[in-house]
């Protein structure tokens, strides 16, 4: 392999790969550099995500090199902008700039084992990249950090059967979130992806056309020439519509409040400092919300003391008093992205629904605490 490229292009490609994969999953990851007629391609995998990044290059000899990702990343980050010569001798990668020469030890390129590609794929379904990022961010809070139930640590991608939308769904036993974004193209089946994978993907996506193709084992996501293959989880996601039907949420609300989001989050966090930890949901502090009379009152009484805070709100319906997880509700309000938030209480005193005024692309459900 022998080629010339720009240091800035290699930096961008390495940074994208570094942000996409989880090194701790399979030890220190390698990056494969592969040169051919199309230019230079960088590839790496942690066997949950496989990423391929094209880099513009003038190739004088085809070939490849396999080196440690972190070694190449640290070297390239310290280089000033300008042209870069790459050449492989044996298995080693030789790098030359205007005033620097380096040799990075490599191993045989054949030792690189990518994720297996699905042959039977459906799609592509096209969407705006930042719409997908917002949807991922909007549901991520409703996944579990650690759980013996894999489905609670995943996000379900559900293309609308009649086209035009892609739904993202997540639930962890205490919270449920749904978000949708416009999507056009060929129909593809639903897919279940670990939230840890999607969170890393959201960090590297940019604005612009983004497509997904779904196979039996993975989801292929493409943007601006970059290909990200995401392994599907074996977890079985519950039917969210049936969950909502059983909960009574679809029956409508009896009490409703609309309030500014930032003061509500700040109030929950302030009052929660004096609340006791919930006996079942560890790490959760329970506060009491009183909704009515054009106000939301947040109160707590714990071993450390007690507090009470009132916020102006627009309320409809009879006064209701309920216990909620302060940190879980704050997470949901922040994830909504709205300047104001609507809290809806169904007749049954078990759940609270979160919505954003004049926006139907996101909704959340919060379990009330006992």
Residue-averaged pLDDT? 92
Outline:
elongated
Counted beta strands: 26
Radius of gyration: 25 Å
Q: What would you say this structure looks like, in words?
A:
With 370 residues, this protein is an alpha+beta fold. Helix content is 21%, strand content 45%. The protein contains seven helices and 26 strands. The chain has a 17-stranded antiparallel beta sheet that branches. Helix 1 packs across helix 2, helix 3 runs antiparallel to helix 4 and helix 6 runs antiparallel to helix 7. It is elongated.
Main attributes of the structure:
26 strands, single chain, 17-stranded antiparallel sheet, 370 residues, alpha+beta, five-stranded antiparallel sheet
Secondary-structure map:
Blueprint: E1 2-6, H1 7-20, E2 30-36, E3 39-45, E4 49-55, E5 57-61, E6 63-68, H2 69-77, E7 83-89, E8 92-96, E9 101-104, E10 122-128, H3 129-140, E11 154-159, E12 164-171, E13 175-185, E14 191-194, H4 195-204, E15 209-214, E16 218-223, E17 226-231, H5 240-247, E18 255-260, H6 261-272, E19 286-292, E20 295-302, E21 305-312, E22 314-316, E23 320-325, H7 326-336, E24 340-345, E25 351-356, E26 359-367
Antiparallel strand pairs: 1-5, 1-7, 2-3, 2-6, 3-4, 4-17, 7-8, 8-9, 10-13, 10-15, 11-12, 11-14, 12-13, 13-26, 15-16, 16-17, 18-22, 18-24, 19-20, 19-23, 20-21, 24-25, 25-26
């Amino acid at each position: 392999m022998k080629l010339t490229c720009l240091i800035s292009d290699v930096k961008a490609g390495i940074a994208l790969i570094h942000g996409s994969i989880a090194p701790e999953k399979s030890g220190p990851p390698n990056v494969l550099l592969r040169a051919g007629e199309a230019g230079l391609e960088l590839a790496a995998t942690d066997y949950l995500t496989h990423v391929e990044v094209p880099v513009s290059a003038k190739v004088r000899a085809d070939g490849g090199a396999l080196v440690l990702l972190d070694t190449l990343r640290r070297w390239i980050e310290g280089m000033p902008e300008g042209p870069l010569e790459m050449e492989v001798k044996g298995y080693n990668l030789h790098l030359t700039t205007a005033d620097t020469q380096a040799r990075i030890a490599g191993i045989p390129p054949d030792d690189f084992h990518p994720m297996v590609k699905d042959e039977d794929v459906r799609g592509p379904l096209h969407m705006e990249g930042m719409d997908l990022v917002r949807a991922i961010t909007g549901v991520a809070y409703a996944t579990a950090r650690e759980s013996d139930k894999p489905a609670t640590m995943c996000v379900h991608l559900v293309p609308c059967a009649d086209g035009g939308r892609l739904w993202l769904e997540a639930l962890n036993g205490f919270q449920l979130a749904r978000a949708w974004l416009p999507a056009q193209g060929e129909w593809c089946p639903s897919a279940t992806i670990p939230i840890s994978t999607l969170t890393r993907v959201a960090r590297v996506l940019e604005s612009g056309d983004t497509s997904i193709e779904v196979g039996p084992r993975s989801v292929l996501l493409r943007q601006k020439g970059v290909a990200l293959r995401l392994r599907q989880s074996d977890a079985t996601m519950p039917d969210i519509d049936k969950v909502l039907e059983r909960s009574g949420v679809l029956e409508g609300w009896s009490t409703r409040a609309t309030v500014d989001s930032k003061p509500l989050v700040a109030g929950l966090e302030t009052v929660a400092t004096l609340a006791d930890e919930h006996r079942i949901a560890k790490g959760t502090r329970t506060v009491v919300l009183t909704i009515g009379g054009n106000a939301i009152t947040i109160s707590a009484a714990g071993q450390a003391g007690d507090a009470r805070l009132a916020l102006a709100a627009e309320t409809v319906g009879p006064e209701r008093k309920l216990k909620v997880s302060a940190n879980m509700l704050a997470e949901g309000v922040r994830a909504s992205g709205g300047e104001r938030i609507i809290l809806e209480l169904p007749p049954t005193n078990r759940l609270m629904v979160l919505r954003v005024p004049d926006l139907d692309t996101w909704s959340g459900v919060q379990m009330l605490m006992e």
